């Protein structure tokens, strides 16, 4: 079992930055693939970024490549999402999630946080 708690959301102007954190409970954090997903109003939840167990492999949605960076600190049971050059279209609820293997589909993730709101104004 893994419990996830996100933090760091807020409101920023376009071009600004935010850093999201996801704190995980459980001693097996390092064995999970961690992901950040987002859901805008009226839209489906989509993958934003993924990171493998050791951090050696990452994946980014095309829309955030070059602007967002996912990292993890297994000693602190925490995964981060650094978001730079934010755009109004990045506005969404951001969710942290954990999966036992490398997956990009929302339905393959077993554990989810409660979400944190990110609002980017123009």
Descriptive tags:
mainly beta; 122 residues; seven-stranded mixed beta sheet; 11 strands
Explain what you see.
The protein contains no helices and 11 strands. With 122 residues, the chain is mainly beta. Strands 2, 4, 5, 6, 9, 10 and 11 form a 7-stranded mixed β-sheet that branches. A 4-stranded antiparallel β-sheet has the order 1-3-8-7, with no helix packed on it. It is globular. The model has no long low-confidence stretch (mean pLDDT 95).
Largest sheet: 7 strands, mixed
- Give the radius of gyration: 13 Å
User: Mean pLDDT score, rounded?
Assistant: 95
Spatial gap, N to C terminus: 40 Å
Structural class label: mainly beta
H/E element sequence: EEEEEEEEEEE
Helix percent reads under 10%
Structure summary:
The chain has 122 residues and is mainly β. It is built from no helices and eleven strands.
Map the helices and strands.
Elements: E1 4-7, E2 10-13, E3 18-24, E4 33-39, E5 46-51, E6 58-60, E7 68-73, E8 78-83, E9 92-99, E10 111-112, E11 116-121
């Amino acid at each position: 079992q893994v419990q996830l708690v996100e933090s760091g959301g807020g409101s920023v102007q376009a071009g600004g930055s935010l850093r999201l954190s996801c704190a995980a409970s459980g001693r097996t954090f390092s064995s999970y693939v961690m992901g950040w997903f987002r859901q805008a109003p009226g839209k489906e939840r989509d993958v934003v970024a993924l990171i493998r167990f050791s951090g050696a492999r990452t994946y980014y949605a095309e829309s955030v490549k070059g602007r967002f960076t996912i990292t993890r600190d297994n000693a602190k049971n925490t995964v981060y999402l650094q978001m730079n050059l934010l755009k109004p279209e990045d506005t969404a609820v951001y969710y942290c999630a954990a999966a036992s293997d490398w997956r990009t589909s929302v339905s393959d993730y077993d554990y989810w946080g409660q979400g944190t709101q990110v609002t980017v104004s123009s």
